[in-house]
Design brief:
Low-confidence stretches: 3-25
Helix content: under 10%
Order of helices and strands: HEEEEEEEEEEEEEEEEEEEEEEEEEEE
Radius of gyration: 41 Å
Strand content: over 45%
Largest sheet: 5 strands, mixed
Strand order of the largest sheet: 2-9-8-4-6
Shape: rod-shaped
Structural class: mainly beta
Length: about 325
């Protein structure tokens, strides 16, 4: 073999040895005692196919950033690209987490050598449609609470999880202004109405909106009826219900009960009493109690000859300002 051939063979052998050694060389990892911190931004991803940036920061035992170590990224939902990244001079290794179209919560992990760090990321569904329902659909004007339930669906018609829903109302207050849809695509809040919130409204408009994949708002509205507690009838009674024709200075207790259209008591209604004979204790308006009852006292000093009865009338203002009246008759006996 010539000298030149021998040199060529030696060079080829060295090249092979170099390649073999290079293939077996392991990537550097964090030394023992290092710390690794994982941060994902954002941790709530509106779209189930959306992305977030994962940053793993590796600090060596001496407190300095580790430059050139390999960090592995894993996730229980979606995927990382790249699955492994090398730390830079600031100790950061960066990868992108992307959803696979399935809403849910992902546990993401970064590790290097014997150190690791984890975080939780929620993949949601962007709103394609939104529906809103109030339960119950009607409230008394005196006050009450209704639950507002918003259902959000994505582009495929499936319930969209992790979508932020905003609620508004024209009357009353909401227990919370925003809520995030659960796995069934539902977001909820409570509408609370007090008597002081209501003037002459017969309904409340409530609204829910959520962002679509292109950033536009999808909106749904619902109406909550207000059952105005207006007087519809009044029942009048007198005790005693009869007096003798010869009686003098007789005191008669009058009672008026005010009811709404559903037959429930109307508190705070102003009642006016009148009588065809005698003197009333209250010449003005008498408000009803919490049980819808107003009272007055009628005094009859004497009964004119030929009188067969005394008519007592109670009047209250009903819905739309109409007058609602009721009467009773005190019978005169022995005339």
């Amino acid at each position: 073999m010539s000298h030149r051939a021998a040199l060529s063979l030696l060079a080829a052998s060295l090249l092979v040895l170099t390649l073999v050694a290079g293939c077996g060389k392991a990537n550097p990892v964090a030394p023992s005692g290092s710390t690794l911190t994982l941060r994902v931004n954002p941790t709530t991803i509106t779209s189930p196919r959306g992305s977030a940036t994962a940053t793993a920061t590796l600090i060596r035992p001496n407190g300095l950033p580790d430059n050139g170590a390999q960090v592995q990224f894993t996730t229980t939902l979606g995927s990382f690209n790249p699955a492994a990244a090398t730390t830079q001079s600031n100790g950061n290794a960066v990868s992108t987490l992307t959803g696979n179209g399935t809403p849910g919560t992902a546990e993401v992990t970064a590790f290097s050598g014997g150190v690791m760090s984890s975080d939780m990321v929620m993949f949601g569904g962007a709103a394609k449609t939104i529906f809103l329902q109030a339960v119950p659909a009607n409230l008394p004007a005196s006050g009450g609470t209704a639950q507002l339930v918003a259902l959000v669906r994505d582009d495929t018609g499936q319930p969209a999880a992790g979508v932020l829903v905003n609620f508004t109302t024209t009357v009353g207050r909401l227990s919370r202004l925003t809520d995030t849809t659960n796995g069934g695509g539902l977001a909820t809040t409570n509408l609370v109405i007090q008597a002081s919130d209501v003037t002459n409204q017969t309904s409340v408009t409530v609204t829910a909106n959520a962002a679509a994949s292109d950033g536009t708002l999808q909106t749904a509205t619902a109406m909550v009826g207000l059952q105005i507690n207006a007087a519809a009838s009044i029942i009048v009674s007198a005790s005693p219900g009869q007096i003798a024709a010869s009686a003098s200075n007789v005191t008669i207790n009058l009672t008026a009960q005010v009811l709404n259209a559903e037959g429930a008591a109307v508190p705070g209604a102003n009642v006016s009493f009148s009588a065809t004979l005698g003197t009333l204790q209250n010449t003005g308006l008498v408000p009803t109690s919490s049980g819808g009852v107003a009272t007055d006292v009628l005094t009859v000093s004497s009964v004119p000859a030929g009188t067969t009865g005394i008519t007592v009338t109670a009047t209250v203002t009903g819905a739309g300002g109409t007058a609602v009246t009721g009467t009773t008759t005190i019978t005169i006996t022995g005339g």
